[in-house]
Structure to design on (580 residues):
């Protein structure tokens, strides 16, 4: 795979100008996501009203894959119900760990399939998943999550 | 001036090494093509490649010489024991240790440092005592001492570094005192390449009666190390960064120190006699080598030492000096790239960041160009904190690296900038 297939224009754009980047003062749910192996670290905040994500924001220190994933995720989940978001999380995880065919991923994830390329780069899969993992933790009222240990999304997919 | 980015300054530094000839000894360098590109292996600080001579020795042992050591009367056991102990003598000569019993085989440097922590630290460090480290240490030379200090109520003292990545030696002198029980210092920083003046630091510590452990993980593959000239009390290195196998390392310790240390792993081979009432420990170094060791790996390490000796450490050091100068010029002339670590005495590695691009993205794009580098905190988070960065990209060189590979590195960094432009 060529670098340009992974670092597609849309990913580079979201990395450079991340959407919903910053703090969210009236958040109802917050979580911190950490990938200790590569140092990606994000803070995610969401305001959930009547089971729907009304607003969402993130900030942190991360690589382009992680930041673009967080940015595009924030756009994708705003206005959706928690149940819908959980479905997206499952499909994003399945796509990036190579557990799902492209057609199914495309049906659920739309533009987010630009991240499908990471499935061939085991060291970068967690960069893409971390924001989704953190959102899953936030809506389930977990304050901190990590991509390692019991919560390891790649190990889980292999089981 | 041309707007086109320069491809490379023309002049190639002179090198005493026939690099093409030594490269032919490393099958992986010519045969592996990551993403269809020629392999440019610049991750030698993490682990180096193995020449055919070492692979052959490893295979020969498994095919013709293997049995367990130190306990059989039969032919093969004696053959294996002799090969294993010959490897120990090769390590002894490599470090210029006075006696072979001063060489303890360990699984790696981490294991060697833990051995000193458990065997020396737990016996001689008490509440209120101090262990002196430096800001350049790898986590392997921090965490064991933290564990010891926590257990004993002792305190860690840390020698600071300046902006070049050199130790502030005045501060080091001030930290030494009657409470200091041990100094643990890396010979070469894995994150910045700084070569520490360990000989002078050891002399200073000895004036205070303090023994010194030197972490040589990043040193023995680049330069001649003479533990008697340094007057080091402990010196540790690992095989897989010295063109040998993983799973084998060595700890040098002065015999009187090793003798007064307690063993930290109990088991077979480290005893003279065992009853349920009392066990008498074996003599050094066997006291510290409980259980069946990685015999083939130790013999492979011996072969790696032979190989490095045949290439010649003087030629290796000269070639790497030329590579470092060439690479430093090539990388630092790229706008927007910052190099971390500019010590006057520096090993052949470059830690850098490309402005506006996270090092992991740099690493992935370089990988797609066939270039293997390390990205991350290099198990040296205090160094990263000192410079206020989460991570760097690190190109670390070995004697088989070429000036062309440096050019490939510089070209790939420009490609990163174009992509993220």
């Amino acid at each position: 795979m060529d670098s340009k297939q992974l670092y597609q224009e849309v990913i580079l754009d979201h990395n450079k100008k991340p959407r919903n980047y910053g703090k969210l003062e009236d958040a109802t749910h917050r979580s911190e996501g950490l990938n200790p192996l590569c140092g990606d670290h994000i803070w995610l905040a969401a305001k959930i009203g009547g089971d729907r994500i009304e607003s969402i924001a993130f900030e942190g220190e991360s690589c382009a894959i992680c930041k673009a994933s967080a940015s595009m995720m924030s756009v994708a989940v705003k206005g959706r119900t928690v149940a819908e978001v959980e479905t997206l999380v499952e499909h994003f995880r399945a796509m990036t760990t190579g557990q799902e065919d492209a057609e199914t991923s495309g049906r659920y994830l739309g533009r987010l399939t630009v991240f499908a390329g990471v499935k061939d780069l085991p060291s970068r899969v967690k960069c893409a998943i971390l924001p989704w993992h953190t959102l899953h933790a936030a809506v389930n009222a977990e304050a901190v999550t990590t991509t390692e240990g019991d919560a390891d999304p790649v190990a889980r997919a292999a089981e | 001036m041309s707007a086109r980015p320069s491809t490379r300054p023309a002049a190639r530094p002179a090198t005493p090494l026939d690099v093409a000839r030594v490269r032919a000894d490393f099958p992986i360098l010519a045969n592996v093509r990551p993403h269809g590109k020629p392999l440019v292996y610049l991750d030698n600080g993490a682990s180096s490649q193995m020449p055919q001579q070492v692979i052959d020795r490893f295979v020969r042992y498994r095919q013709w010489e293997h049995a367990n050591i130190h306990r059989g009367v039969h032919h093969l056991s004696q053959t294996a024991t002799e090969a294993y102990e010959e490897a120990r003598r090769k390590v002894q000569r490599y470090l210029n240790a006075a006696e072979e019993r001063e060489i303890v085989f360990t699984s790696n440097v981490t294991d060697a440092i833990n051995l000193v922590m458990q065997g020396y630290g737990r016996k001689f460090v008490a509440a209120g005592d101090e262990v002196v480290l430096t800001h350049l240490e790898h986590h392997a030379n921090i965490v064991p001492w933290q564990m010891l200090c926590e257990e004993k109520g002792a305190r860690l003292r840390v020698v600071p570094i300046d902006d070049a990545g050199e130790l502030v030696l005045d501060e080091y002198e001030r930290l030494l005192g009657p409470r200091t029980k041990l100094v643990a210092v890396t010979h070469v920083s894995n994150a910045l390449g700084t070569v520490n003046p360990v000989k002078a630091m050891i002399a200073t510590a000895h004036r205070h009666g303090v023994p010194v452990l030197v972490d040589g993980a990043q040193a023995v593959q680049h330069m001649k190390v003479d533990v008697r000239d340094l007057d080091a009390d402990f010196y540790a290195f690992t095989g897989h960064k010295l063109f040998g196998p993983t799973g084998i390392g060595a700890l040098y310790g002065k015999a009187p120190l090793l003798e007064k240390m307690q063993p930290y792993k109990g088991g077979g081979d480290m005893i003279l006699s065992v009853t349920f009432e009392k066990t008498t420990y074996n003599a050094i170094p066997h006291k510290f080598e409980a259980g069946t060791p990685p015999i083939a790996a130790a013999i492979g390490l011996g072969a790696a030492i032979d190989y490095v000796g045949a290439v010649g450490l003087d030629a290796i050091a000269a070639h790497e000096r030329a590579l470092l100068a060439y690479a430093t010029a090539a990388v630092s002339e790229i706008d927007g790239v910052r190099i971390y670590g500019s010590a006057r005495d520096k090993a052949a590695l470059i830690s850098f960041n490309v402005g506006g691009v996270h090092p992991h993205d740099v690493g992935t794009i370089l990988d797609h160009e066939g270039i293997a580098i390390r990205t991350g905190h290099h198990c040296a988070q205090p160094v990263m904190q000192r410079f206020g960065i989460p991570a760097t990209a690190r190109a670390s060189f070995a004697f088989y690296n070429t000036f062309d590979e440096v050019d490939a590195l510089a070209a790939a960094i420009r490609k990163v900038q174009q992509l993220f432009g």
Chain B touches chain A at residues 35, 357-361, 364-365, 368-369, 375-377, 390-391, 415, 419-420 (CB under 8 Å). The mean pLDDT of chain B is 95.
